[in-house]
Amino acid sequence: MMMDRGQFMRTLGLGAGWLAAGKAAATEVAAPGAWAPVLNTASPLHSWADVRAQYSISEELVYLNCGGLGPSPRQVLDIQNLTSRAFQHRVETGHYYFEEARKIVAGFVKADGEEICFTRNATEGNSIIASGLALRADDEVIFETHAHPGGSLPWVNRAKQTGIKLQTFVPDAESAEGNLARIVALITPRTRVIQVSHITAPTGLVMPVAAIAALARERGIWFHIDGAQSLGMVPVDLTGIGCDSYAASGHKWLGAPRETGILFVRRDRIEQIAPMAVGAYSSGDFDFQGQLTYAQGVRRHEYGTRDAASVVALAEAARFQLALGRKRIAARGAELATRLVQGLTSLPRVSMLTPAAAPLRAAMVTFAVEGMKAAPLFGHLLEQHRLRCRPVTE
Question: Do 31 and 93 touch, CB atoms closer than 8 A?
């Protein structure tokens, strides 16, 4: 006999009274409020100072590590704390907030709600794709050598477990066409997946993801994007890009709390990703003879009790950026990166790792100093100049 969720809960002694209490609890948590920043468009410096004031970062730091761990604005921290306290007051999970958060986040990345699930980070989303696709031994996966461990290790693990073959290419820092050509050169009849970082973690190179998506679609190859560095740095339009799947962390450029992320799987591709980890919330009905119907959409990959307050805060981080203007954020990031590149290239012994051409970079800049290793340089910049950077080890 198949059981729906209500029947299953009643077998545990949880009746209509508990369900009514759960619904009532939702009305006691303040909904995220609209943010109306006071921006002086006639004075860009002043307006961005207003934005800076929304963060609790120490004034002693010049914070330059959003690529590793982005700070959250106060309103995101406030909604997370308020929601968490309300759930504790009623001893609730708060999972009933997921659907509203899903609508907000789906709109933020130009996707449908059924195509989005909440994860703990980009690594988890990448792992769901790497473990869930039906691949056989000797099937080939292409990705770049600049992939973050959270993007590469899921595939390395799959190779270790099932014998798939990994084909890698060194990104071309000179042209988008060069990166497309390097991918094409690796494609064989056994190629099943192409993955790239939307923006690479070590150098900030922007990959031509729409062109790669068109190439993969033409060849019948799954195209997955590791978007850990793009979500919140630049506007993301997943429908326009045309990829099959996309994973990102919330705790970087978006400014959401730690252990938040999203996974997108295109609607017509959802059934091709087998859930590798399931539990409560993965299914609407099942029995103990092996009958299992997955939950609708990509939400089937959301299993077990979750921190719903963090999911609410993730949605609020998206609302924060929408209010400020995603194109405005991207333009400001690119402007600051250009100023930094120009200043660094004028210094002796400094070499740029980030592409020189503006279309190939966004808001992240990586450089090296001749004769200095990354760790001591990081310490010098922090201790002597209050610059909180990040050593690149990938």
Answer: no
Beta bridge partners of 352: 367
Token pair for 310: 């963090």
Q: Where are the beta strands (DSSP E) in the chain?
A: 62-63, 116-119, 140-144, 165-169, 191-197, 222-226, 245-249, 261-265, 283-286, 292-294, 350-352, 367-369, 387-388
CB 205 within 8 A of CB 228: no
pLDDT at 227 over 70: yes
End-to-end alpha carbon distance in the chain:
51
**What percent of the residues of the chain are helix, what percent strand, and what percent coil, each to the nearest 5?**
45, 15, 40
Contact call for residues 317 and 96 (beta carbons, < 8 A):
no
Model pLDDT for residues 130-174, shown as the tens digit of each residue: 999 999 999 999 999 999 999 999 999 999 999 999 999 999 999
Beta bridge partners of 144: 169
- Band the pLDDT of 283: cuts 50, 70, 90: confident
User: Confidence band (pLDDT; 50, 70, 90) for 41?
Assistant: very low
User: Exposed, middle or buried, 326 (CB in 10 Å: 0-12/13-18/19+)?
Assistant: middle
Of 37-41, 123-127, 284-288, 322-326, the range with the highest mean pLDDT is 123-127
Name the residue among 202, 197, 201, 200 with its Cα closest to residue 212: 197
- Token pair 């002693």 is found at 60
Whether 34 shows a pLDDT value over 50: the answer reads no
190: which 2 tokens?
């056994």
Residue 263's H or E segment, with its range, is strand 261-265
CA distances from 320 to 72, 79, 128 (A): 10, 12, 28
**Residue 70 contacts residue 253 (beta carbons within 8 Å):** yes
Average pLDDT over residues 64-76: 94
Q: Report residue 2 as tokens.
A: 């198949």
Specify burial of residue 114 (Cβ count, 10 A radius: 0-12, 13-18, 19+): middle
CA-closest candidate to residue 274, choices 112, 121, 127: 127
Question: How does DSSP assign 133-187, residue by residue?
Answer: S---TT-EEEEETT--HHHHHHHHHHHHHH--EEEEE---SS-HHHHHHHHHHH-
